[in-house]
Backbone:
C-alpha cells in the first residue's frame, strides 16, 4: 500500500515551524515574534504557515501549549505525596517557556475566543483531569470521605505558582520550596474540611 | 496667592484621558484600544497624550493600575478575619476591570522593563505592605510567634483568585466562596506552621 502523498513532508513542516517559533520566542520574546521570522528560520514559505494557522497567535499557541498539558503523576500512596508531585509538574510546566511567553499567551487567550476554547479544552482540562484523579485516589484510600471540588483544589495549587512566577516575580530558586508549601497546605486543608 | 498657571487644566486632561481609556477598555477590550480613539473620546490631541505617556501601554497602565493598589483593611481582631478582609479586597480589585484588561496589562508588564518596574513598586508593593501589616498584627496579638514570609502568604492569597478569574475562567458568582476558602486555608496553614 502506498503512503498518502505529502504526509511526511507536512509533518516535518509542522515540526520545523514549532521548533522555529520556540527558538525565536527564547531569543526575541513573545511580543517581537513575527510569522516572517518564523518562516525564514523554519525554511518554509509564509503561505505554508498561514495554511496551518489563521494568526500568529495560533501558531505560537500550537508551538507552546502542547508542552504545557499535564498527565497525572504515578500514585505515590498518599494525597500529600500526589499533590506534591502534581505541584512539581505544574512548576516545571510554567517555569519552562521563555520569560514572557505565558503572560503573552494568556493575554491572547483573553482577546480571542477560538484560542480561549483551545486553552480551556487543552491546558485547563488536562490539569483538571490530573487533579480530579488525585482526589479520587484519596477517596479510594479512605483519606477523604468524598471528592472535594476539583476546581477549588486546582485554583489553590496552580494559582500560587503562577503568582510567584508572573505576578510577584519572586526568586525562581525558591520555587521548589514554595511548591512544597502549597502542596502541604492544600493537602491539610482538604483533610481538615471533611475529616474522614 | 495665585494658583500655578495651567495646573487645573493639566489635571483635567489627565482625568479625561484616564476616563476615556477606561471607557474604551470596557467597550472594545485591551488589544483593540488605540491612542487615537482615547484622544478623540477625551477631546484632546494625540500630542497631549504622548507628552504624558511614551506608549499606549503606559497610558493604559496609568488609567487602570492606580485602582488596583490595595490599602490595609481595618483590624478585625484576628488573623483569620484580617486575611478574609484582604482577600475580599484582592477579589474586588481583580474582578473590577473589564475582562481581558488585567491579562493584557500583565503581558505588557513582561514585555517592557519600565512597566515592570512600575508594576513592582505599585501593585505588588501595595499588596505586600498590606499583607505584612496583617501578619505583624497577628504577631502582636500573639496568634503567631513570629512573622511568616510575606511573599509566600502573598502568593497563597493572590494566586488562587487570579487563577479562578484568568486561568481557569471559573464562575465569578462563586468567587466570594473561593475567597473565604483561600483566606481560611492560609490562616490555618500559618498557624499550623508555627504553633504559638
Residues:
Amino acid at each position: 500500500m502506498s503512503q498518502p502523498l505529502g504526509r511526511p513532508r507536512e509533518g516535518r513542516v509542522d515540526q520545523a515551524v514549532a521548533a522555529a517559533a520556540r527558538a525565536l520566542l527564547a531569543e526575541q520574546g513573545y511580543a517581537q515574534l513575527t510569522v516572517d521570522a518564523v518562516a525564514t528560520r523554519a525554511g518554509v514559505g509564509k503561505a505554508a504557515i498561514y495554511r496551518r494557522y489563521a494568526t500568529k497567535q495560533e501558531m505560537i499557541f500550537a508551538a507552546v501549549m502542547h508542552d504545557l498539558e499535564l498527565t497525572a503523576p504515578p500514585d505515590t500512596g498518599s494525597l500529600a505525596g500526589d499533590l506534591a508531585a502534581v505541584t512539581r509538574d505544574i512548576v516545571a510546566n510554567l517555569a519552562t517557556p521563555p520569560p514572557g511567553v505565558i503572560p503573552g499567551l494568556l493575554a491572547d487567550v483573553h482577546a480571542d475566543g477560538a484560542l480561549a476554547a483551545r486553552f480551556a479544552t487543552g491546558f485547563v482540562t488536562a490539569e483538571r483531569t490530573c487533579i480530579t484523579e488525585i482526589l479520587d485516589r484519596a477517596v479510594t484510600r479512605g483519606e477523604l470521605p468524598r471528592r472535594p471540588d476539583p476546581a477549588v483544589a486546582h485554583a489553590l495549587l496552580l494559582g500560587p505558582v503562577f503568582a510567584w512566577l508572573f505576578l510577584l516575580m519572586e526568586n525562581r530558586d525558591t520555587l521548589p520550596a514554595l511548591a512544597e508549601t502549597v502542596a502541604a497546605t492544600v493537602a491539610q486543608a482538604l483533610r481538615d474540611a471533611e475529616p474522614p
Remarks:
- Chain A has a mean pLDDT of 91.
- The first helix of chain A runs from residue 7 to 28.
- The CA atoms of residues 82 and 134 of chain A lie 6 Å apart.
